[in-house]
């Protein structure tokens, strides 16, 4: 059969070769015909509900921290009195089968949140919808678990976080799913467990069958079906190279380039458990903690002790290295039912939302301060547009410090406060803003979409979204120069930093820190330790004179081939 290539929208790094194992939930059918034996349907619902709760609690007990919390949140849906009551009412009053009653009850809940354009909230909706399918599969006597074997690549429509955890003992080598995005809990847990996962591969279930030979290339976000003999041999060689390089990287000392330009390599996390990977690869701290992923339930946004416990665990585990905690970067549409904005990406999100919702802001800042006594915690403000916002938030932080002093709570009185630069207007005002902050973090994902006026999730204009365009590097160069005037350190925490191609250009522009996916730390460390700084400066100067992204990528690719041939063979050959 001819070799075919399918691309996904996001992935966790890794290359694996194996046989396909298909896991389908979308083939189930639900019968809406009225039932005669209502008691039997009620018993069926209750039996399956209790069975799933019991099984998932056993899995939850084996994990700590946020992974346990994710599972507990899904168990809570099954234990929710309103949900149980609604399902039973539909069986008793509408004579529905248990499967139909579950499906309708969950859909009623989902309809209330489906209109939200907040990507994180939409991901949670996908998880709840899939949860319903898993319940129905159990009711219909289908396998609710994934029948995987060691060495297989699982291909599914979607998976719950609990599915990934169930798979731990079955040892699959990779996972491919049709749905999911960069904020999905499934992808986050796969990254933590270092299982290569490719998501957003549209309609892949129509193309695969059990036992089919496949290659999952997480480096380039693609799945190769029925690879040729030469392709398999090529990828087998790549796998060997990756293993050798990672083994070598892990044993290295912290990064310092040949000309002593100190560039720190830190990790981005959405879950506390990802810190283990940062430490495994000798990363130099957490450069970005996306709290809206770890604390995805809006009810917890007002729970100070819950948040403080999470932040404290992280601060202790990463100590003495820094923990940069970004305040909730969410939109009002996620918090207020029925709240609508024409374009939420340009609306009430990030610091704009928090300044309107002072109780949520107060809760989170107090929780961060309570976790800061070790002195390694930093506060990062998201979606900053104006200097006035920075001044107002810093003033508010000082007010909260006074409260904690009265309460005799210990905290870091000199905690650093930095900003995310992701709005072009903020970037152009860096030299005016820098004196008012302790550090700057550049979010290239949002900066790119705002600079080019492109919604990166809109397939109709996706071709315009490219963070390798020379305009991005020009604006980053402007930010670095403005911040360095006041000796303020600058970090890049977007996808650009996780790419060796992007890292080598950023290095030449004079960046101080690169914050990347934890599993990418060894590869970015190789860039900043092996290449001479003066050579990257020459590359960066040339990039600033280029006219398009293709030209930039090609120049960076040739540069890496010349200076890092081992890494280039994995990435480009």
The CATH superfamily of the largest domain appears as Phosphoenolpyruvate-binding domains
Q: How many beta-strand elements?
A: 16
The third-level CATH topology of the largest domain is: TIM Barrel
**Main pleated-sheet profile:** 8 strands, mixed
- Number of helical segments? 25
The residue fraction in helices comes out at 40-55%
Could you characterize what this model shows?
The protein folds into three domains: 4-25 and 145-228, Glucose Oxidase, domain 1 (3-Layer(bba) Sandwich), CATH 3.50.30; 38-139, PtsI, HPr-binding domain (Enzyme I, Chain A, domain 2, Orthogonal Bundle), CATH 1.10.274; 249-572, TIM Barrel. The longest helix has 24 residues, at 38-61. By secondary structure, it is an alpha/beta fold. Helices cover 50% and strands 13% of the residues.
Task: Label this structure with key terms.
573 residues, alpha/beta, Glucose Oxidase, domain 1, Enzyme I, Chain A, domain 2, TIM Barrel, 3 domains, eight-stranded mixed sheet, eight-stranded parallel beta barrel, 25 helices, 16 strands, transferase, kinase
Short description:
The chain has 573 residues and is of the alpha/beta class.
How do the strands and helices of this protein lay out in sequence?
Layout: E1 4-7, E2 10-11, E3 15-23, H1 38-61, H2 65-79, H3 81-94, H4 98-113, H5 119-139, E4 152-156, H6 161-166, E5 174-177, H7 185-192, E6 197-199, E7 213-217, E8 222-225, H8 229-250, E9 264-269, H9 275-280, E10 286-290, H10 291-294, H11 304-318, E11 323-326, H12 332-335, H13 351-356, H14 358-370, E12 377-381, H15 387-406, E13 416-421, H16 424-428, H17 430-433, E14 439-442, H18 444-452, H19 470-484, E15 489-492, H20 495-498, H21 500-509, E16 513-516, H22 521-530, H23 533-543, H24 549-563, H25 565-572
Parallel strand pairs: 3-4, 4-5, 5-6, 9-10, 9-16, 10-11, 11-12, 12-13, 13-14, 14-15, 15-16
Antiparallel strand pairs: 1-8, 2-6, 3-7, 7-8
């Amino acid at each position: 059969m001819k070799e075919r290539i399918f691309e996904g929208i996001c992935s966790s790094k890794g290359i694996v070769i194996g046989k396909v194992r298909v896991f389908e939930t979308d083939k189930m059918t639900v019968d809406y015909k009225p039932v005669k034996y209502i008691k039997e349907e009620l018993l069926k619902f209750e039996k399956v509900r209790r069975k799933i709760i019991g099984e998932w609690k056993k899995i939850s007990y084996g994990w700590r921290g946020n992974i346990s919390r994710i599972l507990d949140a899904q168990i809570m849906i099954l234990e929710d009195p309103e949900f149980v009551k609604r399902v039973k009412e539909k069986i008793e009053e509408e004579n529905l089968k248990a499967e139909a009653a579950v499906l309708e009850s969950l859909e009623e809940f989902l309809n209330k949140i489906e209109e939200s354009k907040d990507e994180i909230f939409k991901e949670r909706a996908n998880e709840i919808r899939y949860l319903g399918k898993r319940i129905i599969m159990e009711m219909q006597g289908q396998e609710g678990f994934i029948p995987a074997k060691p060495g297989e690549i699982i291909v599914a429509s979607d998976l719950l976080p609990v599915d990934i955890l169930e798979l731990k003992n079955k040892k699959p080598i990779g996972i491919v799913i049709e749905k999911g995005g960069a904020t999905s809990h499934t992808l986050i847990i796969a990254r933590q467990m270092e299982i290569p996962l490719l998501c957003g591969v549209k309609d892949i279930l129509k193309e695969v069958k059990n036992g089919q030979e496949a290659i999952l290339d997480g480096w380039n976000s693609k799945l190769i079906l029925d690879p040729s003999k030469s392709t398999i041999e090529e990828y087998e060689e790549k796998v060997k190279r990756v293993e050798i390089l990672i083994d070598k990287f892990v044993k290295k000392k912290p990064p310092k380039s040949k000309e002593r330009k100190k560039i720190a390599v830190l990790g981005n996390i959405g879950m506390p458990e990802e810190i283990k990977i940062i430490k495994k690869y000798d990363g130099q701290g957490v450069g970005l903690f996306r709290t809206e992923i770890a604390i995805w339930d809006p009810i917890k946004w007002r729970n100070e002790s819950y948040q403080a416990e999470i932040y404290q665990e992280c601060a202790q585990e990463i100590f003495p290295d820094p923990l940069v905690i970004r305040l909730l970067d969410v939109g009002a549409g996620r918090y207020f039912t029925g709240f609508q904005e024409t374009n939420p990406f340009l609306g009430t999100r990030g610091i704009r939302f928090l300044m309107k919702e002072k109780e949520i802001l107060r809760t989170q800042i107090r929780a961060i301060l309570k976790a800061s006594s070790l002195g390694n915690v930093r506060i990062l403000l998201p979606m900053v547009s104006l200097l006035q916002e920075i001044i107002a938030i810093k003033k508010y932080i000082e007010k909260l410090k006074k409260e904690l002093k009265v309460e005799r709570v210990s905290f870091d009185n000199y905690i650093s406060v930095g900003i995310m630069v992701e709005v072009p207007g903020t970037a152009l005002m860096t030299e005016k803003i820098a004196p008012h902050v302790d550090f700057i973090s550049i979010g290239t994902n949002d900066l790119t979409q705002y600079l080019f006026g492109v919604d990166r999730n809109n397939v109709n204009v996706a071709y315009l979204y490219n963070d390798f365009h020379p305009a991005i590097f020009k604006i980053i160069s402007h930010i670095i120069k403005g911040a360095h005037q006041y000796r303020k350190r600058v970090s890049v925490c977007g996808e650009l930093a996780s790419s060796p191609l992007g890292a080598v250009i950023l290095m030449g522009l004079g960046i101080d820190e690169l914050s990347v996916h934890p599993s990418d730390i060894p590869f970015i460390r190789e860039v900043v330790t092996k290449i001479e700084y003066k050579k990257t400066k020459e590359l960066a100067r040339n990039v600033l004179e280029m006219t398009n992204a293709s030209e930039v990528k090609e120049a960076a690719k040739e540069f890496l081939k010349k200076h890092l041939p081992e890494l280039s063979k994995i990435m480009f050959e």
